[in-house]
Amino acid sequence: MDSITSKILYNEEVAPGYFRIGLEWKGVLVLPGQFVMLRVSDSLDPLLRRPFGIYKVLNPKWVKSAGGYRGSGIELLYSVVGRGTIRLSRRVAGDVAGLLGPIGNGFPVPEQSRNKEQKVIMVAGGVGTVPFYLLADLLGADSALLVGARSKEVLALVKDFRPLKCKVAISTEDGSVGAKGLVTDLLKEEIAKGGPSVVYGCGPLGMLKAVAEVSESLGVDSFVSLERSMACGIGVCLGCAVKGTEHAARPGRPPEYVMVCSDGPVFKSSEVEWSRL
Amino acid sequence: MKKNDNNKTGNNKAGKGVTKLPSMAVNVAGLKLSNPVMTASGTFGYGLEFAPYLDLSRLGGVVVKGLSPKPRPGNPGPRIVETPCGMLNAIGLQNVGVDAFIEEKLPKLRKVKTRVIANIFGESVADYVLVAKKLDGARGVHAVEINISCPNVKKGGMSFGVNPKEAARVVRAVRKATALPVITKLSPNVSDIAEMARAVEEAGSDVISLINTIPGMVIDIEKRMPVIARGIGGLSGPAIRPIAVRMVNEVYNAVSLPVIGIGGIMNASDAIEFMIAGASAVQVGTASFVDPQAAEKVVDGIADYLVRHKMSAKKLTGSLQK
After folding, report:
1. How open is the CA angle B53-B54-B60, to the nearest 5 degrees?
2. Boundaries of domain holding B307
3. Contacts of residue B100 in chain A, CB cutoff 8 Å?
């Protein structure tokens, strides 16, 4: 993890309300599912850095020993939702921005740690597609991306995944694209196809809860990437605490709470107290 | 890199010859600091977390997260929310407990050449005394800071901080329990800060630090619920700085003890403002969340200022012109 002043290489709207920003970061090493804390402006208001999932690595080179991609910079994909992202959307190429990261554990990469035969089912809610691009690129046909969204905005989110070998399925609440309904219906179908699989989720809390429940009921392990308000990103403000189940025994740790930034953002679903979130 | 920048500034100002950097050292009631910049409790973990980002030995001192007799899990989330030019937190004094601090954190901190100030907290006077006694014999702890001002816990904390008699009771007991310099951290949540300062001075505190956070609330208007789970949290950041500067000045004028200024310091100019108001040293808090290198940048900026004004850090304290 490093704290740098990065140069903005590009910052452009890819669909109404969605932007992609390129940030220079020579030699950066990114594990799929990691995030950064970005200073959206030098102003005191908004004061705090914002967490953003890393979408792509610029000029990526897979480093097998590290389980990550090395590159010359990173790309973030963000939706404009509040004061911080409005500010960020106005910044232009050539500006500089404080960047801290890459932060967190990321999703387990099957090539590294487990059965290579295992199919990875990635479930994204809206812009929750972000931490899955690197994984989908790496795993290709051994993976499936299921995306749930409200409506047609989903097309902008899946566009970059189309050229990959990863299978993509879509559900929308209004049925305008893909299946009408919830993404967990797609998940049930995908798991039912059989073969060993593992589920990774990123999106709104309600969706993650449903993903964890569906996976558990069908006997499949699941991992979720959690989001919480955080100030520092380095495990000291203790703001992003989540009630954990199995982490309590960690040596030198206060009991019960785990930090999304320094213990996560990816947690095994069974390690999170969902009723307390 | 930063050090060279300072020398350059110094050379420019002094013209030819070797520049002598004015003294940055301060002596805060026996606590000797290489410069007046410390970190504020609760914003700097146990210090070691920041080692990748700055040189801990360049800081005047490191104030660690508040320590209680037993580990505390802290409050349920959400614990923080951003506010205009600040943030609200209700962490609930989550900490590893004094024993784990001494056994696991302190040995590593000892290797870093900085002053370590242990912030202590309890639910009763006996708790404070117990923690203070344990730290008294711990090699590598240079002072204790009594937290009588945390707004985020049910028992103890601020109840000691808003009543002069209660505050004096804690301070007197801790004073007896340790040979280390005793710093008392005051709450701004009182009508007369000078009265509080006089009470802890009389009770034997060596130093006064202020301010802790100001209780505040943020409401989610869609849910019509407070954003943080506990409802009320402590406001910090640049939003509270003018209140803190005013209170530091009031305390400086009310007592003869050295004062440590805390409250929304984001850069050297902010720190210098506190020193002019009467602070012998300062603590950088929320800024370390925004930029993990913030405290070291404050050291550099103060050095630049002292060179420019040809004065020592000591002379800066209380130099407010009428």
Report:
1. 150
2. 26-74+94-213+238-314
3. 252
